[in-house]
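wait is this the right file?? whatever heres the structure
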């Protein structure tokens, strides 16, 4: 069996009880942390907490060379770990489908998602979010400025009155994380006076929600990763109240 376990958002304690049980019962445990990672825990922390050895694979090891993992899952219980929820990334869906094609039984143990946390922490209603997008580092997409696809996604959501969740790039090779201030600075080029909401360290003991003009967020510092950015669309009166009370949004931006 191949069991996919989402570890949740922040540290070794963020996993569900069902996820912890699956890890304890596994014959082999494999993980990837290039799509996302736990900001509050190292691999050593996870190993100590669960009393197991964890093999971390890079992108090539998951996407191009998963044969040894699949072969073991034909006879043994293999657990595949990711941060957040385990089926958010296409990479993980592809691995599950490869297992399915080989007749390997699969199971999914969900973890909390960044999208759910962003809605919960900001007070923005989950059903009022449109398509999400990812803002990459310039070195990741080989261009300058904000990719046109990101601008297009935000604009299309805004035209429909919907909020946009902007995931911020992780460069696992260089252990680099895009910060909310840098993302706000990049997006301010298109929507300088627009409202933005920084969501920082969701799932951790000290999450931060800060709502202000994108140009203002660009001048502020939000500390350790992981960071998200939300570009709100039309606001329900409860959402306006939440952004003012929970994120310190200036009243003139909410009217």
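ok assuming it is, sequence goes like this
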């Amino acid at each position: 069996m191949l069991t996919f376990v989402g570890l949740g958002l922040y540290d070794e304690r963020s996993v569900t009880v069902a996820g912890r049980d699956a890890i304890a019962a596994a014959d082999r445990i494999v993980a990837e942390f290039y799509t996302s990672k736990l900001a509050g825990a190292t691999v050593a922390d996870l190993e100590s907490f669960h009393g197991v050895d964890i093999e971390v694979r890079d992108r090539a090891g998951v996407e191009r060379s998963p044969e040894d993992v699949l072969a073991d899952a034909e006879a043994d219980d293999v657990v595949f770990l990711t941060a957040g929820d385990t089926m958010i990334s296409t990479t993980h869906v592809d691995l599950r489908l490869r297992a399915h094609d080989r007749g390997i039984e699969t199971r999914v143990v969900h973890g909390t998602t960044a999208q759910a946390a962003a809605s919960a922490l900001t007070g923005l209603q989950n059903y009022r979010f449109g398509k999400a997008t990812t803002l990459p580092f310039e070195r990741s997409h080989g261009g300058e400025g904000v990719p046109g696809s990101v601008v297009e996604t935000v604009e299309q959501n805004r035209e429909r009155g919907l909020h946009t969740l902007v995931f911020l790039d992780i460069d696992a090779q260089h252990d680099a994380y895009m910060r909310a201030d840098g993302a706000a600075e990049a997006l301010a080029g298109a929507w300088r006076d627009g409202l933005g909401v920084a969501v920082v360290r969701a799932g951790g003991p000290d999450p931060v929600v800060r709502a202000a003009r994108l140009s203002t967020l660009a001048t502020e510092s939000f500390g350790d990763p992981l960071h998200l950015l939300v570009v709100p669309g039309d606001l329900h009166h409860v959402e306006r109240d939440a952004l003012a009370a929970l994120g310190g949004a200036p009243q003139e931006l909410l009217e």
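The longest strand covers residues 195-200. so i think its the right one actually
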